[in-house]
């Protein structure tokens, strides 16, 4: 059945939608942190459908909220009042750390970042933006121009004029071997240079992920973006925190990833886990920035009744079960396991990340050259052992591990045992 589906998939879907695994799997059911394929095989889901399944699969509270809403009305229109949309916006603004915050809902992270850049360029009357190398912000015409990763940005032409700051793995390239203090000094010097020479200081915004997701869970030292913001703020340059992967407690340290960075964002974009898998995303912005658009704007499906109901139920579950704290505790358990496995394996260059967002970067010994084949083999072996994880990084040589935030101690113990087997010096 799956073979036939693979052929049909290849015939009618784009070749650049790459499927994981030599023998791609068809996931047909989920329960908690487990998913089941079409043959009934069970896997521990440690990628959560690219971090979209935040509180677990088939969580009764979320399923109930979705089905109750679906049985009442699936879609009305954003032209009318929608209570779950307002409810979710109230929860998000309250938690945002942004004064007088307002929310615009969309259906994808790409569209959320598009909205953020539209707002920033309108508010600041400038088309100049600062972005970080090795980032990923989406697949639209605008977002590929601020996405600093050659495998995801086929063209860089858009209405934006983009200046770049360094970012990405610290195992090679311009950031290789830098201490935290040197990393910080380099970022500040590069930023001063951008403001002085490239852009005459007339910049609308900086857009950055607190931890780069697609880029392979790379992160700057704590407080880094705060230092940059101290240089940017006197110019009125806005700070956009792309929290599509880092939001909602995933890092274990704060509700948003920006909190360990010491920044006060002007805008936050969110997506992925917010609706526990429903197509729900958006931008939270300071009220005067949000309202500066001045024209009509609408997203037909953004924050629709069913998606927003899933969002409210997911948010309440997250808070009720204190999943941020769970991310911190279970993340520490996972990290210990990964570091122990890495200590026996010289092809692992680094274990990094925060909370339940941990990456394992494979390298070719002392040269630290990326080793994507080893990452691939580990991905396949983990799957054979019943564990689904992700892959990323500029060269595809980083394993990305990001289970639902509700993962239990027993499930983590099971996963760590598999990692020991998969990573423990056999690569
Ligand atoms: N920003 C970040 C940080 C992401 O990881 C992604 C998706 N991988 C996006 C934006 C785009 O989100 P979407 O795929 O929902 O458009």
UniProtKB/TrEMBL annotation:
Pfam families: Aminotran_3. Its cofactor is pyridoxal 5'-phosphate. It is an enzyme of class 2 (transferase). Its EC number is 2.6.1.44. InterPro entries: Aminotrans_3 (IPR005814), Aminotrans_3_PPA_site (IPR049704), PyrdxlP-dep_Trfase (IPR015424), PyrdxlP-dep_Trfase_major (IPR015421), PyrdxlP-dep_Trfase_small (IPR015422). Belongs to the class-III pyridoxal-phosphate-dependent aminotransferase family. Homotetramer. This is alanine--glyoxylate transaminase.
């Amino acid at each position: 059945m799956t073979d036939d589906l693979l052929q049909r998939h290849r015939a009618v879907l784009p070749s650049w939608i790459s499927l994981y695994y030599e023998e791609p799997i068809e996931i047909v059911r989920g329960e908690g942190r487990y998913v089941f394929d079409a043959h009934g095989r069970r896997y521990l889901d440690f990628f959560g459908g690219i971090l979209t399944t935040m509180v677990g699969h088939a969580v009764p509270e979320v399923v109930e909220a979705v089905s109750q809403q679906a049985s009442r009305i699936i879609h009305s229109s954003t032209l009318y009042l929608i209570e779950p949309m307002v409810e979710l916006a109230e929860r998000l603004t309250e938690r945002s750390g942004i004064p007088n915050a307002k929310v615009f809902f969309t259906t994808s992270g790409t569209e959320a970042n598009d909205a953020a850049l539209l707002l920033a360029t309108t508010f600041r009357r400038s088309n100049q933006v600062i972005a970080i190398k090795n980032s990923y912000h989406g697949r639209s015409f605008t977002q590929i121009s601020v996405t600093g990763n050659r495998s995801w940005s086929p063209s860089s032409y858009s209405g934006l004029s983009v200046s770049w700051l360094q970012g990405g793995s610290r195992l090679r390239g311009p950031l290789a071997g830098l201490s935290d203090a040197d990393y910080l000094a380099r970022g500040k010097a590069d930023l001063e240079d951008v403001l002085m020479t490239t852009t005459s200081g007339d910049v609308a915004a900086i857009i950055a992920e607190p931890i780069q997701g697609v880029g392979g869970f790379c992160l700057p030292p704590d407080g880094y973006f705060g230092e940059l913001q101290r240089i940017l703020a006197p110019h009125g340059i806005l700070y956009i925190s792309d929290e599509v992967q880092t939001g909602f407690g995933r890092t274990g340290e704060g509700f948003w990833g920006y909190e360990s960075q010491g920044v006060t964002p002007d805008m936050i974009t969110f997506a992925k886990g917010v609706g526990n898998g429903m197509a729900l995303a958006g931008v939270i912005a300071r009220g005067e920035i949000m309202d500066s658009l001045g024209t009509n704007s609408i997203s037909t499906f953004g924050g629709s009744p069913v998606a927003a109901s899933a969002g409210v139920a997911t948010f309440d579950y997250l808070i009720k079960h204190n999943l941020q704290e769970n991310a911190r505790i279970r993340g520490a358990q996972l990290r210990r396991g990964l570091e122990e496995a890495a200590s026996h394996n010289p092809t692992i260059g680094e274990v990094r990340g925060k909370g339940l967002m941990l990456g394992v970067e494979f390298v070719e010994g002392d040269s630290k050259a990326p080793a994507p084949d080893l990452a691939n083999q580990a991905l396949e072996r983990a799957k054979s052992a019943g564990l689904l994880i992700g892959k990323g990084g500029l060269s595809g040589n980083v394993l990305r591990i990001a289970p639902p935030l509700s993962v239990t101690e027993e499930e983590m113990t099971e996963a760590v045992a598999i990692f020991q087997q998969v990573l423990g010096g056999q690569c």
